[in-house]
Amino acid sequence: MKRLFLALSLLAATVVTAKITPVAPEPVYPEIARRVVRQLSANHLSGERFDDRLSAIAWTNLVDALDFDRTLLTQEDLKRLEPLRTQIDDLLARGDLAFGYDLMQLTRERLEQRCDYVEALLKEPNPFDFTTDETFVWKRRKAERPANAEEQRALWRAALKNEYLALILTKELDAEEAAQNKDKGNDTDAGEEDEDYEEEDLDKPVPEIIAKRYRNLRDAFSEMDSETVLQRILSAVANAYDPHTDYMSPMNFEDFNMGMNLTLCGIGATLRYDDGAVRVMELMPGAPAASDTRDTRLREGDLIIGVGQEDGPIEDIRHKPLTRTIRKIRGPKGTKVVLRVIPVSDKTGTRTKLVDLVRDEIKLEEQAVTGRVERLSLPAGETRNLGYVRIPAFYAGAVGGELSEDARSMTRDLLRYIQDFNQEHVDGLVIDLRNNGGGSLMEALAMTGLFVTGPAVQVRDARRVQVLPSRAAVAFRKPLLVLINRNSASASEIVASALQDYGRAIVVGDSKSHGKGTVQTVMGLGDNTIYGADRITSACFYRINGGTTQLRGVIPDIVLPSIYDALELGEDQLPGALPYSEVAPAYYAKTADVAPFLPRLKAASDKRLAADRQYQAAQRLIAHVRKANAEQSVPLNIDKRRARMRAERTMQKLQDEALRGGSAKARKDGPTTENDPVLRESFRILSDYIDLRGGPDEPVNTDGDLGMRLFRIFGAQ
Question: First CA to last CA across the chain, in angstroms?
Fold first, then answer.
């Protein structure tokens, strides 16, 4: 107890001179804290009690949430506060939240000091010498914090110099591009739109632009009320278990009940608080954001830093609570919201764009399965018919109930295409699950049943492992190929892994799928208008072979990477993600074995792709993006930085085009063999597989139900 009192005294002593009025917890907050800890300990999948180990993780989470770029708190600060790392469990058991509010006050005081320092430096006529060979570490999420106040000021200066230089060169290079476009007569391809990047007030002097940024930052921290601080503290505690486990304050829970929590009905984007901004994690098919085909469209990985309404001013939302940002983005149907966004292709954040969207409901028809017959020319001059279906989401409607003919069903829509393919005597089927973030588990089980009979997935909660079977009659018995990428998640991973484990399909795509194999349950804490609620990871999906899809995702049989494979997307990019684990395999029988065919399939594919100029250009871009993501620092010498920014702009345009999916026509038509080299090669791989198997008429076994096989062989026991 004496050690704990000393730690709290040290923390309080560091904020005695704070110029900002402290924020204090409300009387009900101690009880909320106790309830949260009890519920997490009792209901999380891990079964782990909130103890000293998790306390240390929660402390790190809280410090990083308040000081995301590791510039405000020094190593000296944290050394003085070290005893608190393992005391949060004891404090919360007593309902003591003072440590979090005091840490918030200390962070705000350090921010005031930084803003004052920046303001003074910006008043100097020539604050920086850009001819020296300095560098700045811009990736600071894992960087060392400054050791003391002296190192801290040196870091603030370097960060300011980086901002200053980036703005100078952005203005310069924008002017160059404008002049070049004018000389070319602004020629663009028919149907194309310009890459409409919109910088923040670049017509104003650089010091004025930067000063406004820091004023906004100061305002964001000063607006944090008591409930916001509570949210930060208890989210840090919940995130100690895993990044999908979270606390929802009463205001957040109200948003959740309105259908707002993280998934926005207004624009259709799944968002996450990230480094002081809002990261776009997923676009919902059929919603305004996903339906936008303009060059400036919102994309997975983009960072939202500002929100405006209609034609009004854009408000900076950096460092503001996610709930408040969501409320600003959400609005009545038919109204316009304008987002200021740092594109995912611009890792240094020196360029922004404006994305205007008209709020609307999700259009289910744009989520729907689409398909066609692809006629592939063979070397001998013959033609092979292959089926192709694209599945954006595992949707299911409640109209008339699950079994009603009026109910909306992805599997039912898919079955109609399969029936058409069977009538047209296609030789095989490509199933495109790229960018499919999941959806209904029941639809995933039903879809699996269209191709194989037997177990489809295993689900483990805190008590048991349950095997869930496929839920439909087999409708297609010819060879399959499944396409995935880094954005294929959850239900997509269940289907792809099951068909892979049975040997029923060849899986092709990025080096791995998304890797989200967990299930979350919302649990109230009592009166949710007073206490809020917890969202707790309560179960985990496992393949029928025993391995989980969590973190590791689905590893394809043949890797054909897309641009998404080079971006920092996926469960493995989330701090504290639950690890890969295994359970006993389910009772199933493989229907085929694709492994013997893979070396020859890959060799033939490599030979074709080596001569595919479109694919090779895409691979060079992917290599560049991977290299850029690995770089931790940028030069602060103006000549070196200018050369780097010129090269980056060229590559950003290519990357943006790859993320957009090519031309406006290509985006409207969807993936085709002309605009999508990965899809084109997938048809070739499937055709080769059909030949290696002995032709399209070679029967495919679809009975993976080992129990049924044994019954047919030996009869009832």
Answer: 65
